[in-house]
Design brief:
By secondary structure, this protein is of the alpha/beta class. The protein has 2 domains: about 150 residues, Rossmann fold (3-Layer(aba) Sandwich), CATH 3.40.50.1000; about 70 residues, no CATH class. Helices cover about 35% and strands about 10% of the residues. About 30% of the residues are buried. A 6-stranded parallel beta sheet has the order 3-2-1-4-5-6, sandwiched between helices. Bound molecules: magnesium ion (MG).
Length: about 240
């Protein structure tokens, strides 16, 4: 599915790709409607209906991904509520081995996320996977979500990469479409971003269930040569 000799840059989404989307889905679809119902003295069903209506508008915009925006809109401390459920934040299977292998290779490994900086902090406080990345790019910092072409142009300006030798793994189809339009050649989606939901079957991009399906070999290097600095101990 992936010929690792063709890949120099690996761009990885966070929610639904590296982390189980169940935390996010449970928070927005179950936990928050419950708290909102209490706050307004309405039924959970009415609360859920009201919130789902509001959430369905503006998807894919920076506001929609912003915890500050929703804190203001709903007059609730969303980051604090998210922290209440932090025990539910979890890394998907095989992710640590996958990241370790990539980190040991010559490749540039970049997390590209639409998650708000506060969301990222809450998650990395609980499951810190930042050590395996060369850098982490938050779309809010580039003032454009991954769904917009502007994001890829700004990413390119900040840290140049060759789209023809770049792989993006992301569970959101609109993001994959945007990356494809920009020219990123290798695109993969996730078949089951939320471990408690059924596998998706209507994907328009090739998909994996888990990262063991595309695990790079331990000593894999794009040019077929081992890194000379790794031979002969740790002396400079
Ligand atoms: Mg995602």
């Amino acid at each position: 599915m992936i010929d690792w000799r063709e890949i120099d840059t690996v761009l990885l989404d966070m929610d639904g790709t590296l982390l189980d989307l169940h935390y996010d889905n449970f928070f927005w679809m179950q936990h928050l409607p419950r708290v909102y119902a209490d706050k307004h003295g309405i039924s959970e069903e009415a609360s859920r209906e009201h919130l789902h209506g509001r959430f369905s508008a503006g998807q894919g915009t920076l506001d929609w991904y912003s915890l500050d925006y929703w804190s203001e809109q709903l007059d609730m401390d969303i980051p604090a509520l998210k922290r209440e459920l932090r025990h539910m934040i979890s890394v998907r299977p095989h992710v640590i081995e996958f990241l370790t292998r990539l980190h040991e290779s010559h490749r540039d490994v970049v997390m590209v996320t639409n998650a708000h900086r506060k969301t990222l902090d809450i998650k990395m406080d609980h499951v810190d996977i930042t050590q395996w990345f060369d850098r982490i790019v938050v779309s809010h910092d580039l003032a454009a979500p991954k769904e917009d072409q502007a994001f890829w142009h700004k990413l390119q300006a900040l840290h140049p990469f060759d789209p023809a030798r770049t792989l993006l793994i992301d569970d959101t189809e609109r993001v994959l479409e945007s990356a494809r339009d920009y020219g990123i050649a290798h695109l993969l989606t996730l078949l089951q971003p939320d471990s408690k939901h059924q596998k998706r079957i209507d994907n328009r991009f090739p998909g994996i269930h888990h990262f063991d399906e595309i695990m790079p070999a331990p000593d894999d290097a794009a040019d077929g040569n081992a890194d000379p600095s790794r031979i002969g101990g740790s002396t400079p």
